[in-house]
Amino acid sequence: MLTRSPVGVKTTIPPFPEAPKGLESIAYDAANEKGTGENLQLFTGADKQVRAAEPGQALPSGDYDVVGARGAVSCNGEKTYYFEVVARDGSGRRGVLPGCMLGPSSTPPSALLVAKWDAVPTFDAKRRVDPPEDPQALGFVDAGALGSDPSVVGVRVVDERTLEIEAEFPTPYILDTLSHATSYPVRRDIIEPFEAKGEPDMWTRPESIVTNGPYEIDAWKFRYEIRMRRNPHHRHHDKLKIHNIVWMCVESYVSSMNLYKSGELDYIGDNGSLPPPYKPVLRERKDYKAAPYLGTYWYEFNTKVKPLDDVRVRKALNLALDKAQLTEKVTRGGERAATHVVPPFMGGGYSEHVEALKAKDADLFATPEYSFNPELARELLGQAGYKVVLDPKDGYRAEGMPAIELLYNTSEGHRALAVAIQAMWKNHLGVAVQLRNEEWHVMLKNVRDRNFQVVRFGWIADYDHPQTFMDTFMAKSPNNRTGWSSTAFESLIHKARRTADTTESMKLYREAEKILADEVPKLPLYFYAKSTLVKPHVKGFFFNRRNEQLVHWMWIDEDWKVEKPNEPAFPPETFPAPGAF
After folding, report:
1. Residue 165: which H helix or E strand, with range?
2. Do residues 203 and 191 touch, judged by C-beta distance below 8 A?
3. Is the pLDDT of residue 580 over 50?
4. What separation in angstroms does the CA of 511 have from each of 338, 352, 496, 501, 580?
5. 142, 167, 188 - which closes a domain
6. What mean pLDDT comes out for the span 185-205?
7. Which strands, in side-by-side order, build the sheet including 3-5?
8. Burial of 24 (0-12, 13-18, 19+ CB in 10 A)
9. Which residues pair with 167 in a beta bridge?
10. Number of compact structural domains in the chain
């Protein structure tokens, strides 16, 4: 399906008489409630042309019939088409507009413009073909003629113990994604009755939920504790050496540490943190554990508001930060300063590629162009129209540069970092920064509404492959809150995902990462490290870069003062190699 018809048109930008030729991509922003007008930009290589609003030349608002597709185009990083539309009011008004400028009509769609799709799953490698780059429109079909065919999903049950999945392209991390929480099976017979009663979330209550793991919820006191017990239906029930678990809900880092010191906690937990001021001292203890963590802490720019719509401003703000000092003096947990977005210890062949580049002194992210460089930052800010001058009394001042607002969710760690960055931008660039903190849910709404300039965010890997980070920069990703998109970036990612050779694939991912470093839609600050405290009598604890510690491997060693190997509670299961079934 290429589009529905009729469609709604509501624009002050004139339509094209026919589909323009030679354009590589377009970018479109609709008008918003804050008074920002429409913006349509046409790109041909490095050249950009802006198509301005001309209310008298635009199509009147209303419903229009689509009469055909007039060529493919990339809009905001996503493939669409130019569509010829004709007014439904009998006036004969017509024109050509890209699909990203069309909206829903006031009446339900009655027709669908369709093309042939040649990539239906076959489960036969010899018959698989890539989808055509530009499928040609065949014509219109009745919107009510749509049917359901589960075979096009590419997933089928072979027998009671085998699930077969056909991927759209080589996916070396597919088993990793299937072990993610979003892939866990749930009981339909538990969930659907609550949905029928209009209580879709009630199945998660302790008295209703049915889980798959070795432990089940015994009791839950909101914002206080969660108690768990062995799951009597689990295959490892009799092997578990820890029978009951109490997870404490403690917001304060210092309070967690004090509970640990008093013996109330055996383990600080995997979703909390140690208070940064204490980390240098705690690091010397035998019960201190630390490991690199597959995550990147970054700030996100709203690239649709001034002055952050200028890439030179974003690059200047990035280069003016001494990220090594941030990790050494503020976070103090073994984090690594970040000049790019993917952690260098990422799997999928990425870490090997990075190490090979470093061995040849060919890692471009280690160059002054991407590292702490306040001189270059001031030069870039001047090029953007905000000359940085040195006042003997007050230090640097960026002339004409408006104050920037930095938004972060309430947390002692986020505030400490924001205060340090506020000082660096003032000291190195003369840019004033106003700090604004909000509770998590309030901040999320403001970010969704684009009511921010710079906001604290980050990303924890869903699976051990660079694609999990790259997904957050795609134009249609709900995790891309910046308003930024790039056809060149998305083209590289499209190619990297479909390249089976790991070495060549990682080269493409690294090229795409350079675009991110050059455009700076998100400002990477550091790669996460995780640190915690674990009592010496807790055995079977294995810290790792996924920060996933499974309690069913753990056990309490009553004779812990006698040195012995750290072993799991019972031998792990072994599985056949992929494909050997």
Report:
1. strand 162-165
2. yes
3. no
4. 17, 16, 10, 16, 35
5. 142
6. 92
7. 3-5, 111-115, 137-142
8. middle
9. none
10. 2
Domain of 472 in residue numbering reads as 292-529
pLDDT at residue 394 in the model: 87
Q: Model's pTM, two decimal places?
A: 0.84
Q: Answer yes or no: is 323 within a domain.
A: yes
Q: Domain for residue 55, yes or no? A: yes
CATH assignment of the domain containing 486: 3.10.105.10
Placement of tokens 């635009």 in the chain: 58
Decide: 175 and 181 in contact? Cβ < 8 Å. no
What are residue 277's phi and psi, to 5 degrees?
Answer: -60, -25
What per-residue confidence (pLDDT) applies to 382? Answer: 96
Tell me phi and psi for residue 63, to 5 degrees.
Answer: -95, 140
The CA–CA distances, whole Å, from 476 to 4, 32, 133, 462, 482 equal: 19, 18, 19, 18, 11
Mean pLDDT of 68-73: 90
Q: Are 543 and 549 in contact (CB under 8 A)?
A: yes
Give the CA count within 13 Å in the CB-facing half-sphere of 462: 16
Cα 429 to the center of its chain, rounded Å: 29
Q: Is 195 left (phi over 0), alpha (psi -120 to 50) or beta?
A: alpha
The average pLDDT across 151-164 equals: 84
**425 within some domain:** yes
Which of 89, 120, 142 marks a domain boundary?
142
Q: At residue 548, does pLDDT exceed 80?
A: yes
Name the least confident of 233-247, 391-405, 567-581: 567-581
Residue 562: burial class (beta carbons within 10 Å; 0-12, 13-18, 19+): exposed
Closest CA to 530 of 320, 341, 270, 299: 270
* Angle, helices 374-383/412-429, rounded to nearest 10 degrees: 70
Eight-class DSSP state of 487: H
Cα–Cα distances in Å, from 467 out to 128, 512, 514? 23, 11, 15
pLDDT given for residue 148 in this prediction = 81
Q: What is the pLDDT of residues 79-127, one digit of tens each?
A: 889 999 999 999 999 999 999 999 999 999 999 999 887 777 777 766 6
Contact 218, 228 (CB under 8 A): yes
What's the mean pLDDT when you consider all of the chain? 90
What separation in angstroms does the CA of 332 have from each of 277, 292, 324, 461, 530?
8, 13, 10, 22, 11
CA distances to 259, 494, 514 from 42, rounded to whole Å, are: 59, 22, 23
Residue 439 in domain: yes
Please give the Cα distance from 293 to 464 (Å, whole number).
11
Q: What is the mean pLDDT of residues 9-22?
A: 92
CA 446/CA 511 separation, integer angstroms: 32
